[in-house]
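Quick one - first record:
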Amino acid sequence: MRQSLLVEPRRLELREVPDLEPAPGELILSVDLALTCGTDLKTYRRGHPKFPCPTPLGHEFTGTVAAVGAGVTRFRVGDPVLAAPSAPCGECPACRFGLENLCKNIHGRSMAWGAFADQIRVPPHVVRRNVFPRPRSLPLSHCALLEPLSCVVGGVSRLDLVGRETALVLGAGPIGLLFVALLAQRGVPQIVVVGKRKNRLSAARALGADEVIDLDEVEDPGAAVRDLTSGFGACTVVECVGRPEAWSQAMDYARKGGEVLFYGGCAAGTQVPLDTYRMHYDALTLKGAFHFSPSDVRIALDLLVSRGLPGIDALITGQLPLERLQDALEELLAGRAIKLAIAP
């Protein structure tokens, strides 16, 4: 089989490696389609402490069962499936407290990792909880969105949207755009997106944004937000950039009594100044969100199967073969694409 490996930042090699053999409880999938994501891009650009080079990349995928490990009874060779790449262990303290999205064993090599290849290994705990038969009517690209959509479902579940007239999404990357789609599906009356790049802001409108503020054109985005919200600011702000300055901006965009969800992850050790006066006297609610639980995955799956997110095709702006993965990642770095499909 072929597998794309990151041998050093911004250098990939497509290598021939032995076909995968399943251990008990595992599935080996032939990858039918994989999608790029922000984690792939960050790892490609600068490396990743949890995945030292040389490392495979890719964890948004759909495939067909190529081999079945001993003890697996739900699937057989030839079954088309879709999957989220991780699952909680069910045994650590976080899992026992019901915080499955914070399971200590949910990341790193316990994931199904390495979808930019002909085959991928799915660990037993993922097979048990987060692998599903693939509806034949569902486009492959939609199936491969299960993981990022599950993350966003988990994020939206943290929000109090009852009576909220305006939601603002800061950042128009793939995750921010999925927040737009889900907020629109939840019936938020006004959705504003603050971001950059015409292609992304156009996609935001296709996914349900009512207003967009282009940071490359607007000198004072805070004033623009107030103009769109009768001078008050947004009831709900979702930060999807993952930079300290964006976290600070997110709080500035919130109205009195508003809530701010910090979804974009900043680097370890990062700190953000907190306006304690506003926090207290404006009664702001600040929240974090991370990853997903199996219940979020099932909600995401239902949304995909029911075609409950119109315009979702706007997220995926092209498809390239596996041997051109490096070209795809360079296109993303240059801002010419939003999310790309990679076909073996």
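second record:
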Amino acid sequence: MKILYGVQGTGNGHIARARAMCHALKSHDVDVDFLFSGRAKDKYFSMEQFGDYQTRRGFSFVTENGRVNYMKTALENSLPSFLGEVRELDVSGYDLVVNDFEPVSAWAAKRQKVPTVSISHQNAFLFDVPQKGANWLDDSVIQHFAPSQYQLGLHWYHFGQPILPPIVHTLEQDVTSEDFILVYLPFENTDAIIDLLLRFARHNFVCYHPDNIENAQLENILMKPLSHESFQCDLHRCSGVIANGGFELPSEALSLGKKLLVKPLDGQFEQQSNAATLESLGLAQSMDFLDAGVIRDWLDEKQAERVFYPDVAEGIANWLVSGNWSCSANLRESLWEKVDFPSYASI
């Protein structure tokens, strides 16, 4: 079987899922090519696992100071350029296109009538799961941005819907709780982050950000550039995580038993919904802005308990190679029955 795997590259969560799926598919007799879109090719990092991968411009969202700038998003994306990429991408030699919210490969497969399976957190919003702040445009994007024949949605809980647990990809190393907080707020202004964290002189922070060029110690804050292996190492060692309201990093933090504080991206309904869902499940706290009061209270909270999620990537890989993509009921049931939540979770 030959597969083209399209991945949305605007954020690192989609890429993290692709790492897990790449690892799982290697144990099967399949040939997988990867295609990424949503950022400039020189902005991808730690991509060796994906071999000779392709990139496209695709579509991406422009953010400024923790919120989506819709005007700049519209100006910096080109519909004619996107349509040209769709027409030029030949997927006829593939048996299947797997897609994680990547529009170029999705529309090329639809145009050329190649079977498509989409695997994403966004697919969960096709069903009756908790949402906050969604409007008609958000619903339209979820339904039409990256179309597919078959959909697998991922979420922290099933809510009685036909969706799967998260795909969690972490390093095989010991999990400890050392005296620092891991901070990853890539959509926030670095000066604002530093000013905020300097207020908590009795606590140590390790802060990753796309604007960081090299390691730099600023009193109680160690600023680090983006690196997959370094980040994973610190994630396993930290005592807590402060992050935006994406899906993959909170999933990893929950699976490692790290207490979690999320600050959703303003104007992005998925992140707003994620933050509200985590709070309602009792699995994390959230803040609407870089709020020192919320952080102060959160720092005094006790350590979290681990959420156990099974190897969802391996389960999906087995399901993909079976070829029975129209039926995922057995896959869903087998995975959810292995999930174990902490005693304090509101399930």
